[in-house]
Amino acid sequence: PGNSDRKSLFFSFQPVPLASSVVSSSSTPLFLYEHQEADLCWRTVTRGHLPGRASLLLTDSHTHSSTADAQPTDAEREVWDQVDVVLKDAKGILDELQAYKGAGQEIREAIQNPSDEALQEQAWAAVVPLVGRLKKFYEFSQRLEAALHSLLGALTSESYDDPTQHLEREQALAKQFAEILHFTLRFDELKAEGENEVNNELANRISLFYADATPMLKTLSDGTTKFVSENKNLPIENTTDCLSTMATVCKVMLETPEYRSRFTSEETVSFCLRVMVGVIILYDYVHPVGAFAKSSKIDMKGCIKVLRDQPPNSVEGLLNALRYTTKHLNDESTNKTIKSMLQ
User: Which of 41, 126, 312, 332 is the most buried (most CB within 10 A)?
Assistant: First the structure.
């Protein structure tokens, strides 16, 4: 591109320099440490009877103690292997986003000194890799959507009578689904923390994906809706019941002292909170009347209360996700109490 193209790029682009506070000080990767206990989260509540339609059996967590226990069965193996490749790359995507330094200083200097060719070249050299990174994020979102389709296809198939049996007998796939939701909410949280530094005009030109406030969540919501529309022979309840069951599992784990006390890491709590919010949003998109209706199989008041019971600064992003990225919250049929709880 010519010099004029570069200047227009500088004037419209501001990358995302993440605050140093969001860069993990721990040397333990996010996709390893917290998931050791998250496996316990899923396996502790994956049998017997929970309230409502989510009839899962509460088992002794000591029988299943680590991520290594959630190994795929032969029937799960093909899908699990496909998704596992994506999840391994997901860790690297989060690492890149956390380490995103931006090129704000170079861009400002180039804008302030438009006739200085050396500064223009420096800014251009700084910007090009960042644009490439945005492209990488977008391409990964497409892989994530494909992984989601594979998991939904397995977890909502008619090989079992109800979603509870899927989650009980296909725990390795259920856990991968949870990990995708965790990654999605975490990615969008990190992006939002740098949102004031983003000029969405250029982001929109580069990719409508990154211009969205919650790009990964939008990808999953659209992907789930697409899955349902492309599988009209599959009862929609197969999908919505799977999502509502997962929401109930997370809610019970988080609100019941007996189970909550088994978590030794706050990262595990964050994991379960993100999964809960993620499945609520997906449910709200694919269910005809959404997650906030009286007939919803998700206890929205209970889920919001669980969020409200957390330290405020730790869940504001998740509350905002419910406020601004759901489809039916502002419907007239939504209970006023639920609306007020999210104000």
Answer: 41
Query: What b/e sequence results for 310-325 when a residue is b if at least 16 CB atoms lie within 10 Å of its CB, and e otherwise?
Result: beeeebebbbbbbeeb
What is the rounded CA–CA span in Å between residue 285 and residue 197? 29
Residue 300, token pair as written in the block? 């929205």
Q: How far is CA 127 from the centre of its chain?
A: 27
Q: What is the pTM of this model?
A: 0.68
Q: Which residues, at least 6 apart from 88, have a Cβ–Cβ distance to it below 8 Å?
A: none
DSSP class of residue 71?
Answer: P
Question: How confident is the model over 105-145, as pLDDT tens digits?
Answer: 777 787 788 788 888 888 778 777 777 787 888 889 889 99
What value does the CA radius of gyration of the chain take, rounded to a whole number of Å? 21
The whole-angstrom separation of Cα 154 and Cα 150 is: 6
Residue type, 311: P
> 78: which 2 tokens?
């093909």
Residues 6+ away with beta carbon under 8 Å from 276 = 246, 247, 250, 251, 254, 303, 306
